[in-house]
Every structure is written in structure tokens, then in C-alpha cells.
Write a structure and sequence with these properties.
There is one protein chain. This protein has about 180 residues and is an alpha+beta fold. The chain has a single domain, classed as 2-Layer Sandwich (Yope Regulator, Chain: A). It is about 40% helix and about 20% strand. It contains five helices and seven strands, in the order E-E-H-H-E-E-E-H-H-E-E-H. Strands 3-4-5-7-6 form a five-stranded antiparallel sheet, covered by helices on one side. The radius of gyration is 22 Å and the shape is elongated. It starts with a strand and ends with a helix.
């Protein structure tokens, strides 16, 4: 906060306050999370990773619309369809990063996309892991890369991979989702 004294004509002096710096989402999220219990080092690193990833994406002028970040192993990106979204993930136990189409509760949509698997994978330029997840509501179509989340020196490379794969999924899946909405 910056304080100045101002005077107009012969009026008494009055303070003028100017905000120089204000809390960001990181500080707010940490405060909110502490209210719900202590954050582990892993959760703090996840929050830092997603905040820095978001900054990286904005610097690269991505068209992806990032949501608010949280101390968790994933972040979601909308693709304009209520039945699916893109999820970018960190699996620190298995040292894997992922980009996936996440379908929370529509097995019929997953089945329709599976019928178009060859065309989708051709556009992706690689094989995907098709995960129906029987017995669960959700389904996934995922691509992954190995990587050590604990090594912060490699984060920029992971940011690059996640951004490229997120943009690719974002460019491919909306048309398939739209086709399936019209059926």
C-alpha cells in the first residue's frame, strides 16, 4: 500500500491510498486449504506446478482456457461440451504425466468415440489408452509421457508436452463430441 497526502486548494490534507500489491490466487488457495488441514509438500508442489503451467501457457498465447488451479494432481480444461473435458494429470507415484479426454458419466459417448478410435488416433498421431473403466461412471481416452514431477528443473519440458497435447486434444475432440450429440 502506498499513501500520499493530497490537498486541493486550501482544503485540509487528505490521504490517498494506492494498492501496490495484492494477494494472488496462490496465497488465497493456500489460506483456504490450511483451513481444511495442512497441505503436504506434494500438494504445495502440485499447486505451484499448475500455477506455473498456467503462466507458461499464457506466455505461449495458448487458446486453452485454464480454470482456477488447486493443490491436486490434475487440472481441467473445458472443450465446450457438457459431457466431457480435457484433464491434464500428474501421477507422481508412477512418474507419468497425462493428457486425456475425461468423460465423467456417459458410457454411450465413450462407446461412440471408441467406434471412431482409428480416425481419432490417426489425428492424434499416436496410440491412446482407451479406458472404459467398467464399474465406474467415468471413462478416459489418455496419452501419457514418463516424467519425474519431483525434478523442478524439468518442469518446463513437462509444461511444453502438456500444452502441446492439451491443444491437440482440444483441436480434435470437439468435432467428434458434436457428431455424437447430433446422433
Amino acid at each position: 500500500m502506498k499513501i500520499e497526502l493530497w490537498q486541493i486548494g486550501d482544503s485540509p490534507y487528505a490521504p490517498k491510498f494506492e494498492i501496490i500489491s495484492k494477494p494472488n490466487d496462490w496465497a488465497k488457495t493456500v489460506r483456504e486449504s490450511i483451513g481444511q488441514g495442512e497441505l503436504t509438500d506434494t500438494k504445495l508442489n502440485q499447486l505451484e506446478f499448475w500455477n506455473r503451467f498456467k503462466e507458461y501457457g499464457k506466455a505461449k498465447k495458448t487458446k486453452l482456457r485454464f480454470q482456477k488451479t488447486y493443490p491436486q494432481h490434475w487440472t481441467n480444461i473445458s472443450i465446450g461440451h457438457s459431457d466431457a473435458h480435457i484433464a491434464l494429470t500428474i501421477n507422481s507415484r508412477e512418474n507419468v504425466f497425462g493428457a486425456e479426454l475425461y468423460i465423467p458419466d456417459n458410457k454411450e459417448l465413450y462407446a461412440n468415440l471408441l467406434e471412431q478410435k482409428n480416425a481419432i488416433e490417426e489425428e492424434l498421431g499416436e496410440k491412446a489408452e482407451w479406458m472404459e473403466l467398467p464399474g465406474k461412471k467415468a471413462s478416459r481416452i489418455r496419452i501419457t509421457v514418463e516424467g519425474n514431477f519431483e525434478n523442478k528443473g524439468n518442469w518446463e519440458g513437462y509444461f511444453d508436452w502438456l500444452l502441446q497435447k492439451g491443444e491437440k486434444l482440444h483441436s480434435i475432440f470437439p468435432k467428434y463430441l458434436k457428431q455424437n450429440s447430433n446422433n
